[in-house]
Amino acid sequence: MEAEITLTVDGTAHRLTVDTRTTVLDALRERLGITSPKKGCDHGQCGACTVLADGRRVNSCLMLAVAFDGARITTADGLVEDGEPHPVQRSFVEHDAFQCGYCTPGQVVSAVGALDEMREGWPSAATDEGGGMDEEIRERMSGNLCRCGAYANIVPAIAEVVQR
Fold it and tell me: Which keywords does this chain's UniProt record carry (predicted)?
């Protein structure tokens, strides 16, 4: 069965006819050619496919596109404004917070979402334990895995954006 949907991706509206079993990730990559969200595990365990849907972090490999009809989707590419990288993107580069780069778009988008959650006062398990900023970042980013182990630079990159 197919359905007609509209996804606004990185500010551009796209009208699509999709199989009702199509995930947001597959709609982005296979139908729209938007490849910054990556298909890592395809089970919602690695976070390489993280996008913002109406401002909230989601694993796009788990979300059915028909459930997001009318949603505003932001990928790592959509974080760039007027040709300028988002502060998180800049900080990742400045801190060399990537190695192979496969997980980086998901890490960056998740960090942007996590910072918004922190700014809005959403608590986490680390907030309740009072473990400090690094622990807070690690807890909030725990759904995004890096097989290369770049965490030693990812956490300081995000912490620097918090401090700014």
Answer: Iron, Metal-binding, Oxidoreductase
- State how far the Cα of 141 lies from the Cα of 114, in Å rounded to an integer: 7
Rounded distance between C-alpha atoms, residue 15 and residue 69, angstroms: 9
pLDDT at 69: 98
Identity of residue 101: G
d(C-alpha 77, C-alpha 86), whole Å: 10
- The CATH number of domain 87-163, selected from 3.40.50.150, 1.10.3720.10, 3.40.50.720, 1.10.150.120: 1.10.150.120
- Which residues make Cβ contacts (< 8 Å) with residue 132, sequence separation at least 6? none
Structure tokens at 73: 């989707």
